[in-house]
Write a structure and sequence with these properties.
The complex is a heterodimer of chains A (263) and B (257). Chain A has 263 residues and is an alpha/beta fold. Chain A has a domain of 146 residues: Rossmann fold, CATH 3.40.50. In chain A, 37% of the residues lie in helices and 25% in strands. Chain A contains 8 helices and 10 strands. Chain B is mainly alpha-helical and 257 residues long. Chain B folds into 2 domains: 36 residues; 218 residues, MetI-like (MetI-like fold, Orthogonal Bundle), CATH 1.10.3720.10. The chains are: A alpha/beta (263), B mainly alpha (257). At the A-B interface, strand 6 and helix 2 of A face helix 7 and helix 8 of B.
Chain lengths: 263, 257
Amino acid sequence: MKKYVQIENVQMSFATKQGTFVALKDIDLKIERGEFITLIGHSGCGKSTLLNLIAGLLMPTAGVMLCADREIAGPGPDRGVVFQNHSLLPWLTCFENVHLAVERVFGATESRAQLQQRTSAALALVDLTHAEHKYPHEISGGMKQRVGIARALSMQPKVLLMDEPFGALDALTRAHLQDELMKIVATTNSTVVMVTHDVDEAVLLSDRIVMMTNGPAATIGEILTVDLPKPRNRLAMANDADYHRLRGAVLEFLYQKQARKAA
Amino acid sequence: MMKFRKFFAESLVPPLLGIALFILFWAVLSQTSENLPGPMKTWDSAVVLFSDPFYQKGPNDQGIGWNILASLQRVGIGFGFAALIGIPLGFMVGRFDFLNKMSAPIVNMLRPVSPLAWLPIGLLVLKAANPAAIWVIFISSIWPMIINTAMGVRQLPQDYLNVARVLNLSEWKIFTKILFPATLPYMLTGIRLAIGTAWLVIVAAEMLTGGVGIGFWVWDEWNNLNVEHIIIAIIVVGIVGLLLETLLVKIAKRFSY
C-alpha cells in the first residue's frame, strides 16, 4: 500500500520566555490513501500542532514530513484545511468564499464557467446550493462549517485536514454533520486527518485513532485500528459490541493511562 | 395610531423639549445682556439672510451659501489629499513593523500640535492664503487616517491570515479580498474623525486667512458688530458638521461586519 502522508521522527519545539518548550517529539505516522485518521488526546497534547505541521502552517524543528512523496515545505492546495471556527471571510458570500479557493487552484487552467461550476458543485456536495448567495452572518454555525468543508474540498486536496471541525457546534448539529461527512468522504474517497476530543466521533468516523500522550513533549501513545464495517450507522452502533469495545479502549487510554494529574 | 403616538412620545418629544429649553435659556440670557440678540431677533435676521443665500456683491460680500460652499470645498480638497496619502501610508505602517517603529516618534510628536500652528508654514511655502488653508486641513486630517488605517491592518485576525496561507493566495488577492475589506471599517472611523477635525479647524483657519468662507464670514460680521449673523453662523456650522457626521456613520454602517 502506498504511504500517502509520511511523518518520521518529527519534533516540534517553541521558543518561549522560559526557554525552549518541546511540544511534540518522536512522532512517527504513516497514513494511507483514503484513510480516515483522527488525532485524540487531552487539551494541550499537541494534536492541533501536529495538524498544523501537516498543513504546513508550522515547520517542524526536526524530522521529515512528506505528502505524496514531496516534502511539506509550507501550506499548499494539496492539503485542504477546515478550521475549528470556520474562518469564512464575512464580506464574501458562501459562493465567493469557495470560489476564492477554486480560483486559486484551477484559475490558471480552466475557464470562468468551469470555475463557477466547480464552486457550485462543492456547495452542492455539502447540500448548501440554496445558501450560495448568503453571507456567513446570515447562516447557522453548522452551515458555516459546511461551507468551510466545501471550501477545503473544492481544491481537490490530496488530504483533508480538520481541526476540531464540529467542536463549536451543538450535539445534534454535530451528529448531523458527522453523518454528512461520512457520506462525503465515501463519495470523494478523501484522505482525512481530523483532530477531535470527542471519543464517539473518533470511533464512528475513523479507520485508525491516533491517541496522544499528555504534553509537554507529547508523542503518539497508541494507535487503535477501528475495523467496524462501513458504511457505519449511528443507531446501529449504539448497540454494537465492537463499537463499545473500541470506545472503551479509547476511554481507558484517555482516563486511565493518560489521566490528567490535576483537572 | 398607537404606533405614531409611541414614536411621538419616545423619539420626538425629548429632543424637541431640549431645543425648546435651550431657546428659552438663550431668550432669558439675552434679556440680561444688551449686546446678545435674542432668539426672535436672530430668527428675523436669518429669514432675511436665507431669502437670498447666493448673492454676489464683490469678493468680500457674498451670500452665506457661497461662504459655506467655499469652506466645504477647502475641506474637501485638503481632506481628499490627506486620504490619498494617509490611507496608503497607514497600510504600510500597519503591515511593516519597521515602518511603524520608524514613523511612531514623528507621528506621536506632530499629532497633538494644533493644526493652526502649521498655517504660517503653509503661507510661507505656498505663498497664498487659500492653499495655506487647504494645507492646514490636510495636516489636521492626515493623522487620524494614518493611525486608524494602521490599527485596522494590525487588528487583522490571525484566522484570516491562516486562510490566506492555506489557500496560498497571491499578495494582490490577500490585499483585495482580505486586508482591504478587513481594514475598511477602521479606515472609515479614521475618515470620520478626520472630517470632524477638518470641519472644526476650517472656521479658525479662515478667520486667519480671509477670503470667502464661513470662518471669514464670522470674522467679518464681528467687525460689523452683527452678532445675529455670528449666532446664525454657529448654528449653520453645527448643522453642516452634524450632516457630514451622519452621512459618514451611514456609510460606515454599510461596511461593518
